[in-house]
């Protein structure tokens, strides 16, 4: 029995829920849903929102140092898009009963997870190209199937996010293409960035399928449509021809198409590194969290002023109504 109804309601609710999932239709905020489904979505959507917000930092680092006004304008727009993605996703999580304050608090207390990729440093301009190409590229592979996620507000948020991610990926590819057509030093800088980001980008799809215990349930609920390894394979298949056009080398000597297995054969991924970074011990975890905390504290007066303004507006409109 839940707070929403009786045992009978739960049985009827479960049956209605199962029918919607079976028919590939959508669950909406006011519909009955299993508690575990709600909790899974809150966890996944809030982690996704945190990733977008923390993900502004590695590139924000280069806004003041972009090599031209045009590059600066593009990078600024891209980073602002990521802020927007965070906001749509926090709103989607709020439709499930999570509050924005709780989610923010969990992030700045270091209790919430976010994508491990954003804990790597961005020492050169080529990192801007590589993040767009590899990190936004991996995000697209992950997120396009989420446009069909069974929870309505999540799926709809993903549609808009994916359109923007495609722009991000192309702008990154174009930065790298420009560098690869430049001087030898620029080409080296691009290759070095690809060497540093390639493996962490492959880790973005999460642990291998046999070590991903929640995946089967998420697939049954039609939140997730493809397994981690399937998405990783699809991503590699997308990168190989693009790397050839760029003239960069993907840093895996074992990488080849396995005709018999109909899959990409790769070297072993270093999952120890993934788990270390996820546990907060990556190169930039502490800096990223401290920046987020500082921004939250420095923005306190804006939130207070906005709340006070809203309170006065509400009072004024009550006065008008009276
Ligand atoms: Fe994004
Ligand atoms: Fe993006």
From TrEMBL:
Stored Pfam families: PaaA_PaaC (PF05138)
An example Gene Ontology molecular-function term: phenylacetyl-CoA 1,2-epoxidase activity
Keyword field: Oxidoreductase
Top enzyme category: oxidoreductase
Entry-linked InterPro entries: Aromatic_CoA_ox/epox (IPR052703), Ferritin-like (IPR012347), Ferritin-like_SF (IPR009078), PaaA (IPR011881), PaaA_PaaC (IPR007814)
Record-listed E.C. numbers: 1.14.13.149
Entries under PANTHER family matching the protein: 1,2-PHENYLACETYL-COA EPOXIDASE, SUBUNIT A (PTHR30458:SF2), PHENYLACETIC ACID DEGRADATION PROTEIN PAA (PTHR30458)
Protein's name according to its UniProt entry: 1,2-phenylacetyl-CoA epoxidase subunit A
Natural source organism: Microbacterium candidum
Gene: paaA
């Amino acid at each position: 029995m839940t707070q929403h109804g009786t045992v009978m309601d739960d049985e009827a609710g479960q049956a209605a829920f199962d029918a919607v999932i079976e028919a590939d239709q959508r669950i909406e905020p006011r519909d009955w849903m299993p508690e575990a489904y709600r909790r899974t979505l809150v966890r996944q959507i809030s982690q996704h929102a945190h990733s977008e917000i923390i993900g502004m930092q590695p590139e924000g680092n280069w806004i003041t140092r972009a090599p031209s006004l045009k590059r600066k304008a593009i990078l600024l727009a891209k980073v602002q898009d990521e802020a927007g993605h965070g906001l749509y996703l926090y709103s989607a999580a709020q439709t499930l009963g999570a509050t924005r304050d709780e989610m923010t608090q969990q992030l700045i207390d270091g209790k919430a997870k976010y994508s491990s990729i954003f804990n790597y440093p961005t020492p050169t301009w080529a990192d801007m190209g590589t993040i767009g190409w590899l990190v936004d590229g991996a995000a697209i592979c992950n997120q396009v199937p989420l446009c069909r996620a069974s929870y309505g507000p999540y799926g709809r948020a993903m549609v808009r996010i994916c359109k923007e991610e495609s722009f991000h990926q192309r702008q990154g590819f174009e930065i790298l293409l420009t560098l690869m057509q430049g001087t030898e030093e620029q080409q080296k800088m691009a290759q070095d960035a690809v060497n540093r980001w390639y493996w962490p980008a492959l880790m973005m799809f999460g642990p291998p399928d046999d070590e991903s215990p929640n995946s089967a349930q998420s697939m049954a609920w039609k939140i997730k449509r493809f397994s981690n390894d399937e998405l990783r394979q699809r991503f590699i298949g997308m990168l190989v021809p693009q790397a050839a056009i760029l003239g960069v080398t993907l840093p895996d000597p074992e990488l080849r198409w396995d005709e018999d297995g109909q899959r990409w054969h790769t070297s072993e991924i270093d999952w120890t590194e993934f788990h270390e970074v996820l546990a907060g011990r990556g190169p930039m975890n502490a800096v990223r969290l401290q920046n987020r905390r500082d921004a939250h504290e420095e923005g306190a007066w804006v939130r207070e002023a906005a709340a006070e303004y809203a309170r006065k507006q509400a009072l004024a409109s009550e006065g008008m109504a009276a």
